[in-house]
Amino acid sequence: MTTHYYTATSLDGFIASKDHSLDWLFRQEFDPDGPMGYPGFIKNIGALVLGASTYEWVRQQQDEWVYEEPTWIFSHRDLPTPEGKDVRVVQGEISEVFPQIEASAGDKDIWVMGGGDLAGQFADAQLLDEVWVQYAPVTLGTGAPLLPRQLQLDLVDTVQNRSFVCARYQVNYTAV
After folding, report:
1. Low-confidence ranges of the chain (pLDDT < 70)
2. Cα–Cα nearest to 17, from 115, 145, 110, 128
3. Which among 48, 89, 90, 93 has a CA at the least distance from the CA of 66?
4. Separation of alpha carbons 102 and 26, rounded Å
5. Overall pTM > 0.85
6. Is the Cβ–Cβ distance between 131 and 15 less than 8 Å?
7. How far apart are CA 33 and CA 50, in angstroms?
8. How far is CA 97 from each of CA 74, 85, 104, rounded to the nearest angstrom?
């Protein structure tokens, strides 16, 4: 089992604009079925993990919850969850909740959807294995950072997907 942070970023390292928008991302040319695209990635995912802001943004974009995987939301406040879906709002340290997340994923992987600080908390607990980044051909100047932590990453793979450069890294805990 592998824990992935799979996301897109602007060239200057922001995953969302300062007003938490992703409009800049959806104006870019990307083939979802191309290399490092979403359908190929999600088929190996057994559980999702989101921070409250990412969860609320996803909920605003969808009429109904589209994910079938067990979903874990880290939040310091109560959040409404979609009826009939396995969405759990939790608090606490990543390392304390991780065994439950891992069990819910079965024999599949875990996707830390975001944000960057949540992925950083997984890295702080040495529970983040890979970082997949799709670099969009745009700069934002400010916003939510990709990963607000110092990490050593080892490059595993790179590909081009239309106008994106996509890279997959392994987190190297021994080099920090």
Report:
1. 176
2. 145
3. 48
4. 31
5. yes
6. no
7. 23
8. 10, 19, 11
